[in-house]
From TrEMBL:
PANTHER family: COBYRINIC ACID AC-DIAMIDE SYNTHASE, P-LOOP CONTAINING NUCLEOSIDE TRIPHOSPHATE HYDROLASE. The lineage of its organism: Bacteria, Bacillati, Actinomycetota, Actinomycetes, Micrococcales. Pfam families: CbiA. It comes from Arthrobacter koreensis. InterPro entries: CobQ/CobB/MinD/ParA_Nub-bd_dom, DNA_Partitioning_ATPase, P-loop_NTPase. This is ParA family protein. Residues 5-215 form the CobQ/CobB/MinD/ParA nucleotide binding domain. It comes from the Bacteria.
Length: 280
């Protein structure tokens, strides 16, 4: 089971959008996937069209991590039913896209002084579940307790950045923070890579920043870039999978996330990449 934290220390770069795009691609590919919504704003939970019922949110489960039953409290994404109704879908195939729901209560752990025992809370919860090929953790845009808790529970970290000055600088800071965290708490943790999001191919500034990112981060800069799409907000506002949204623009976006997911989950050199600092 691959556990991937999707992180950025700068807000507004589309971290949750990338999480949702990868979840959509995993659903289309038939990979049993769990999304853990660790951001107290719970935007991923909303975007995945979850009907909570009486299930516990992730904040309540973290509070009693040793006793809580994560498997009993995950909720299927509303996207699953849509996937089953797609033309040509094998009725015997049961797609799996579950959600550990976000909650404002998890914010009590989003502080800088979280101890080692608290950092293991999410690891304890995930250690009780089986049957998933992929776990995606949507982290808050900070390096406080929740992000560090997610990193402690993960195999790899996927960083999200926009091709802009502040975002690129923030990504470099995140890489250095990840390096320090690995040395102190998680020696087996490694970056899955960096995905450039909301890219405008016609923008000279974006072209310049992408070249800068390639120089700074080398082959950690993943392919493909995720282009800015005019109807992305409409898709998210409808709490809909991009793979099931009509139109050429959505089809192109879905193809980008398919390729990104393939690069993310592939075995070999990426999985075993040795952690290194970005070039100065």
């Amino acid at each position: 089971m691959q556990v991937v934290s999707i992180s950025s220390l700068k807000g507004g770069v589309g971290k949750t959008s990338v999480t949702l795009g990868l979840a959509s691609a995993a659903l289309a590919a038939g990979i049993p996937t769990l999304v853990v919504d660790l951001d107290p704003h719970a935007d991923a939970t909303t975007g995945l069209a979850v009907s909570p019922g009486n299930n516990l949110g992730i904040g309540d489960m973290l509070r009693s991590a040793r006793r809580a039953d994560l498997a009993a409290n995950v909720v299927p994404s509303g996207w699953v039913e849509t996937a089953r109704k797609q033309p040509g879908n094998d009725p015997k195939r049961r797609p799996v896209l579950d959600v550990a729901m976000g909650s404002a209560y998890s914010g009590i752990y989003d502080r800088p002084d979280l101890g080692k025992r608290d950092l293991r809370r999410l690891s304890t919860l995930l250690g009780k579940v089986t049957g998933y090929g992929l776990v995606l953790i949507d982290c808050p845009p900070s390096l406080n307790g929740l992000t560090r808790m997610a990193w402690s529970a993960s195999n790899r970290v996927l960083l999200v950045a926009e091709p802009g000055l502040f975002s690129v600088a923030g990504t470099e800071r995140t890489m250095r923070a990840l390096d320090l965290f690995r040395q102190e708490f998680a020696p087996n943790l490694a970056p899955a890579g960096i995905v450039a999001n909301r890219v405008r191919p016609t923008s000279n500034e974006h072209t310049f920043r992408l070249a800068e990112m390639k120089q700074m981060f080398g082959d950690l800069l993943m392919e493909p870039n995720i282009a800015e799409h005019a109807n992305w907000q409409q898709i998210q506002g409808a709490a809909h999978s991009v793979h099931h949204w009509p139109g050429d623009s959505a089809k192109q976006a879905a193809g980008s996330f398919d390729a990104l997911l393939k690069n993310l989950v592939q075995t070999g050199s990426m999985r075993n990449r040795v952690m290194r600092r970005p070039a100065g």
